[in-house]
Design goal:
Layout (H helix, E strand, L loop, with lengths): L3 E4 L2 E3 L5 E7 L9 E6 L5 E7 L4 E3 L7 E6 L4 E6 L8 E8 L4 E3 L3 E5 L2
């Protein structure tokens, strides 16, 4: 069983930055995708960014503002979020997909407001 623990959320003003981190409880092979989804209140959960061994994918709404990275030695994935907007407000979920299962973190709140 894989446990994912997120950290780094909080309240920030528009234009500000936050860095989310997620630590896995077991070894995650580099070819398994890791990433972040988010769910705003009353909306569906959507992909924010995903990173595999050779490529990364971003939602159009965050391209140029968010950067995903992973440390395979530490089994962590991070999301650097810059130029935050009120519409980025959501619960952010860490995600890992293996050959047999999908795993989710418990979610962490990110609020962008003045």
């Amino acid at each position: 069983q894989v446990q994912l623990v997120e950290s780094g959320g909080g309240l920030v003003q528009p234009g500000g930055s936050l860095r989310l981190s997620c630590a896995a409880s077991v070894t995650i092979f580099s070819f398994y995708p890791m990433g972040w989804y988010r769910q705003a209140q009353g909306k569906q959960r959507d992909l924010v960014a995903l990173i595999g061994r050779l490529n990364t994918n971003y939602a159009d709404s965050v391209k140029g503002r968010f950067t995903i990275s992973r440390d395979n030695a530490k089994n962590t994935v991070s999301l650097q979020m810059n130029s935050l907007k009120p519409e980025d407000t959501a619960v952010y979920y860490c995600y890992v997909r293996t050959s047999t299962s999908e795993y989710w973190g418990q979610g962490i709140q990110v609020s962008v407001s003045s």
